[in-house]
Amino acid sequence: MAMTSTLASRPPIATARFGPVRHAPVCRPAVAACDRLALSGRRMQDSAEAGPFRAESRPSILARRYDADPASVGSATQAMQMTPEEAIAFVRTHGIVLEAAAGPVPSLAEAIAGAPIQGSWWPHPRGKAIFRATRAVRAADEVLVCRLIDGKITLVHRLLWPALVRCAGRLQADRLARVTETHTAAGRHAVRTISFPQWVPATVSLEADALTERAALERLRRCMPIDANG
After folding, report:
1. What pLDDT shows up at residue 20?
2. ∠ at Cα 53 (114, 47), nearest 5°?
């Protein structure tokens, strides 16, 4: 699922200040409008035409995000002010999001930074904002933290959990394990995993049973690369 990005070799583009997007199509969720689209409570349908999610190449993701031609997307893009609530809405809108790594799905850290991040995001000028947003998303009950995409920290919204469970046989079991963080008495962060399917709520299992595999695959393929032929 890894992909090679050509963003570094492309010229920068001029960007305008973000403002409200009044008529953003559901199939093209821009970051600036993610809270409006996500908080509307829109649910995905089983048909191929319904739902806001679509798997795209990384240049296309960035181009769509900044209303640009994919061929002209460069590394100079405008950082976005994003509250913790908007960060959760960003995950809800896109369905499957990488926390910080580059890959075939949107990156939350990259959306906040406004451009691909070289190396760690900790020293980045927007590092504090990225930290606040990622901690809020990790703490959200509606978000699964796992290593689904390329073994990197991946954020999956509750809307996609039934499809994920239904297609679990096509995915690596260890990448479906839930990653959790706790604070020790010594003030350190301890990371532990809850194996799949131990973390799956009963309601999600029932929803997964009600899905056909074809419908589940269609949902996932809107958000991530997945082999439809098994």
Report:
1. 33
2. 170
Of the candidates 186, 169, 99, 98, the residue with the CA atom closest to the CA atom of residue 134:
99
Residue-wise pLDDT tens digits, 70-80: 343 333 344 56
Q: Is 153 helix (H, G, I), strand (E, B) or coil?
A: strand
Give me the pLDDT at residue 53, please.
53
Q: Does the pLDDT of residue 92 top 60, yes or no?
A: yes
Omega before 29 cis (within 30°)? no
Question: CA dihedral in degrees (82, 86, 89, 95; nearest 10)?
Answer: 10
Q: What is the C-alpha to C-alpha distance for residues 139 and 121, in angstroms, rounded to an integer?
A: 19
Residue 145 is inside which H or E element, if any? strand 143-149
192's CB contacts (< 8 A; 6+ apart) are 179, 180, 182
Residue ranges covered by each domain of the chain = 26-221
- 195 burial level (CB within 10 Å; 0-12, 13-18, 19+): exposed
